[in-house]
Amino acid sequence: MQLGLDSADRLAQALHEAQEPLALAAAARLLLQSPRVPADLQRRVVDEVVRSDARLTWRSAGEIALAAWTPQRLELGDAVFCVVDLETTGIRPGGDRIVEIGAVRVEGFELAGTFERLIDPGVPLPAEITRLTGIRPAQ
Question: How many Cβ atoms are within 10 Å of 80's Cβ, its own excluded?
Fold first, then answer.
């Protein structure tokens, strides 16, 4: 079996027409123009074509995509994200309870919104947690 000189072009065209990633096995069949390609040969054949053409990229271990589909890197300063914090009655998973939920929304490194909610844990608040967080039981 031998790759054609137009292998990368055929793979890029198939991806462009499908508008979705192509599975490794399907890409190998297309490249070798064979209905069945042994599994051990699939990756070697497809990888050789993908590595040699900037239009192509691995989307995952088993999918090939057009490189143009890969999301551009988003700088942190341009990102919108939320930071969430929980205060609890201790550090034992499953045994301790949530006392407070807090969140901040950040847009371009600027504070865009906040959320804060105290929650009755249904158990006494340990003194060390009060010292650490400043949260006190309601009087």
Answer: 10
Mean pLDDT by 10 residues, the chain (139 residues): 75 94 92 86 90 91 89 79 94 89 93 94 89 84
Q: Which two tokens stand for residue 51?
A: 């590595």
Question: What's this model's pTM, rounded to 2 decimal places?
Answer: 0.50
Of the candidates 104, 93, 106, 100, which has an alpha carbon nearest to the alpha carbon of residue 129? 100
Angle at 70 between CA 67 and CA 73, to 5 degrees: 125
* CATH 1.10.10 for the 7-69 domain, yes or no: yes
Say how many CA atoms lie within 13 Å of 121 toward its Cβ. Answer: 21
Task: Quote the CA–CA distance of 37 and 15 in Å, as a whole number.
Answer: 19
Classified by CATH at the fold level, domain 76-133 comes out as Nucleotidyltransferase; domain 5 (3.30.420)
SS3 content of the chain, % helix, strand, coil (to 5): 35, 30, 35
